[in-house]
Design brief:
This is WGS project CCBQ000000000 data, contig 00058. The protein has about 625 residues and is α+β, with helices and mostly antiparallel strands. The protein contains 16 helices and 32 strands.
């Protein structure tokens, strides 16, 4: 007497689902047998040819109504790890054990019991199982538990509707998502879906994820989601590397142009049909690699030499680097090739401050003047005179220019109305000034060891920040979104409370407008070897960062990190959130007086006229 266990496991449409109404039991039984033959033929084909079976085309429309999960052909015939293949292996082992039984009567009894179970409905099956479990001893129960543990595993990702599966995968981190893509073809298709990786990019790019603590750089337009086909190509099929192709004429000549110029706009429209879309996974992977390089200090160094004296200031974007020097010139460099594009002459003394945007460049000089340049043509548009001593810093927004000077004042220049207002209050040189357009405020740092917050509408001082014990060289207004996870230094609060009371009696006549969006924090550096983080609303110093052994001349910051340059000839990279030093870079032979930061690089300039750019992409 023979019994095919694997065939017995193929349920008819009504078996186990008595609530499903059927019209003709004989027709359904016949269709079930035909479907079983079809499935078995597919299984044999897989065993013989070692290829994955195709889904049956004659399957009923609602298989979850007519089949349980374990015997649903839509699910269990899609890969070699499915139930049908596992059942086949178990069936072969079971047949072998049955043949090894000594008594024929034992085989007959087992087969009779299984047939009775097979022909029973769902209610009777449960009663039979309950009775068997009551008769089992612990060894049998342990065996059942081990077997059931393997049998009840459900591939819910493949089974659920695609929208729900993608929603679940959206809660995974990057490493878990990549691991999930290795499970099977179906999981890979879902784990690589653009919607999942768009959510990942949205969570991490230009912000820190509160769950994993990682934030990815925004990067510039050359790594945008849409790229011209004629400007980029893929190095391999997986899309690991993208790089720009060389120009058609093969020349190294660089032409400065605005991204929004009419010529570039027309050209971009003509090329619009040749743009391709990059997968969000590729974009995430690219930025993840850059962030990993930042954290591990993997970079390539680019050297810029061309000034005859020390470098005083620098600014850069993804295309151009601007450097100002004691030699009274401004040099414009191509960041890709490292070549000098143009040198601007006009100042009669060192260039201490630089600001630029898409249309203009503004320079502050030790010759007491401010100049506005068209850096595309190299011509000087206008010159501003008014300071009585060296101009040490300059910043701008639209038609407003602010400048700081060694004459202890800050000036606000309104270009359209051709008016200038002087902000007085500092008692020593004003080394830096920064605008915050959203709140109509500017912030200044001085050799008098203080920082000041000014209202540029009323031209009055709103607040004074005290805490440094050395000349304050730089101030940067910041808007930190994740304040809850910001690490602060509790020990400093008691000191700054007394300083807050002292500042209340100062010459601060301005008040903060509750309707305006002020920066949440200020960042400053000083020749007392420290970097301080201040809370704007209270005026308190909430964190002091130690690490440099000599004065800190300059700092730069973005949403994730701080870069500082010091008289000790080193550059340090700090985590903005917790204030810890991530990396220390050495290599300069002279004190570092200026630094700048980008998404995938930072630059530093020293007193010997050497500028280095540290790149963390394309390594």
């Amino acid at each position: 007497m023979e019994f095919n266990l694997q065939q017995a496991c193929r349920p008819s449409i009504k078996r186990g689902f008595d609530s499903v109404q059927t019209s003709d039991a004989s027709d359904q039984e016949q269709s079930s047998e035909g479907r079983g033959e079809f499935i078995r033929s597919k299984v044999n084909k897989v065993n013989n040819n070692d290829v994955e079976p195709e889904l049956p085309s004659e399957l009923p429309q609602f298989n979850f109504i007519k089949f349980c999960y374990r015997h649903n052909p839509d699910i269990q015939h899609t890969c070699k790890d499915s139930m049908v293949f596992q059942d086949q292996v178990r069936s072969e082992k079971w047949q072998e054990k049955m043949e090894n039984l000594e008594k024929e009567s034992d085989r007959v009894n087992i087969i009779k019991t299984l047939k009775n179970y097979q022909n029973s409905n769902d209610k009777i099956r449960k009663l039979m199982l309950e009775g068997i479990l009551q008769l089992c001893c612990f060894p049998q129960l342990s065996y059942i538990a081990g077997e059931v543990k393997q049998l009840i595993k459900i591939d819910f990702i493949s089974t659920l509707p695609e929208e729900l599966s993608l929603k679940i995968l959206g809660y995974l981190d990057c490493q878990s998502l990549c691991t999930a893509s290795l499970a099977c073809k179906r999981w890979k298709a879902l784990a690589d879906d653009d919607r999942v990786w768009y959510h990942m990019c949205e969570q991490h790019i230009d912000r820190k994820c509160p769950n994993c603590g990682w934030g990815l750089p925004l990067l510039h337009m050359k790594r945008a989601r849409f790229l011209p086909i004629n400007e980029a190509h893929v190095h391999n099929q997986n899309g690991n590397n993208f790089c720009a192709t060389e120009s058609a004429n093969g020349t190294d000549k660089t032409v400065i142009s605005r991204d929004d110029s009419p010529e570039s706009t027309v050209a971009s429209k003509n090329r619009s049909s040749r743009y391709y879309t990059r997968p969000w996974k590729v974009i995430y992977r690219e930025r993840f690699q850059v962030e990993s390089n930042w954290r591990n200090g993997r970079c390539r160094i680019q050297l810029f030499k061309g000034h005859m004296d020390g470098v005083l200031s620098l600014r850069f974007n993804h295309r151009l680097l601007f450097t100002g020097s004691y030699d009274s010139t401004v040099a414009i460099w191509d960041t890709k090739s490292g070549n000098l594009i143009r040198r601007l002459n006009g100042h009669t003394d060192g260039v201490k401050g630089i600001f630029f945007d898409d249309q203009k460049m503004i320079t502050a000089s030790l010759d007491k003047t401010i100049r506005v340049w068209n850096y595309i043509t190299g011509s000087c548009i206008s010159t501003y005179r008014g300071h009585q001593d060296s101009v040490l810093s300059v910043d701008s927004y639209k038609k407003i220019i602010v400048s700081a000077s060694a004459d202890k004042t800050v000036k606000v220049w309104h270009v359209e109305s051709r008016t200038c207002y002087t902000l007085r209050g500092h008692t020593e040189w004003v080394n830096c000034v920064k605008l915050h357009p959203k709140s109509f405020t500017c912030y200044s740092s001085s050799d008098d060891k203080t920082l000041r917050m000014w209202d540029i509408r009323t031209n009055s001082c709103i607040k004074i920040f005290r805490g440094h014990v050395g000349q304050v060289q730089k101030v940067i207004p910041l808007t930190i979104k994740d304040i809850e996870n910001l690490v602060v230094d509790r020990k400093i609060e008691k000191i700054t409370n007394a300083e807050q009371e002292e500042s209340a009696a100062d010459d601060c006549t301005g008040i903060m407008d509750p309707e305006l969006k002020y920066p949440t924090h200020l960042l400053s550096c000083s020749l007392d070897n420290t970097i301080k983080l201040w809370e704007v609303s209270s005026g308190k110093c909430i964190r002091t960062q130690f690490g440099h052994v000599e004065g800190v001349w300059d700092i730069a910051a973005d949403n994730f990190r701080i870069v500082s340059g010091s008289h000790d000839k080193s550059v340090k990279v700090w985590d903005l959130q917790n204030g810890k030093c991530i990396q220390t870079f050495t290599g300069h032979k002279a004190p570092i007086v200026c630094v700048g930061i980008g998404d995938s690089s930072f630059a530093s300039g020293d007193e010997l006229g050497e500028v280095k750019m540290w790149h963390f992409d394309d390594i």
